Amino acid sequence: MAKGWLKALRDTPALKQGVSVVGLVDLDRAAADALAAEFDLQDAATGTDLDAVLSATRPDILFDIVVPEARRAVVAAGLAHGCHVLSEKPMAASLEEARELRDLADKAGKLHAVVQNRRYIAGVRRIRRMIEEETLGRLTSLHADFFLGPHFGGFREQMDNVLLLDMAIHTFDAARFMSGKDPQAVYCHASNPPGSWYRHGASANAIFEFSDDVVFTYRGSWCAEGAPTSWESAWRVTGTKGTLMWDGAERFEANIVTGTQGFFRPTGPLEVPAPEDDADTHGHASVIERFLEAISAGRRPETDGSDNIKSLAMVFGAIESARAARRITIAA
Which of 29, 51, 121, 260 is the most exposed place for a label (fewest CB within 10 A)? Predict the structure, then answer.
């Protein structure tokens, strides 16, 4: 994942001009040295001791791209050294740790935000705008299907609740962002299907209750081969006047009721609007740019921990529901 971040810094003119990488830290020093060489960062310090490199380089920002179990220690170290911190998802390995990190950032007077890069794509922004403009009428439900079969190897295949914790948060966050609603409760069934190459939790089905009587359903699997969806899921968004469908890539279909007679009322097509700001459609680069702008403006970015904890609460609510086999109330 570090390569994705460094590519965004290298290939985005505004970021290339505004950010200087002064250090790279990895438990494997050779990995840090290899990244420095690959991205032509000869002047960047490398090391295995985060505190030592932070003390030596005194950066303004720490980019936290570690595995979830290490998140709390890394973020806390960055905040203690006076850094703003931008983390990979998930925000923390538990909801308790997420609350602690939110409090630590507030006490330090620094920002801690999360890279929810998949809300910074054109499709998600277009749907958000359509819902905000109520073109489909009042929003009633969102439905997402996520079916892929990636063979990652490495830590993901050994994780508990791998789909919910490592991937579903993207879809959950997108649903929360597009709808503009807050999660209130969830019922989830999770399993590890026969033939799964993951140790635990490669499949999940969840029903979320959102504020204002909106329902969000999720069907997902990371060991489903043969008919893949997009990484962004396949979506159906329903309002009181019509429905929008998105394949997670380039295909949109939206229709609205146009008449008042007939067993099935007649419908007609709708155009899905463009994103309000094209600058919000470039994934990692957009997240980092907005983070830097928030620092300069003295405000919280869109994916600040104080907001992102709600998406994380959806994840841990679903995990708890699957474990207890009952509906769980969500509280961030």
Answer: 260
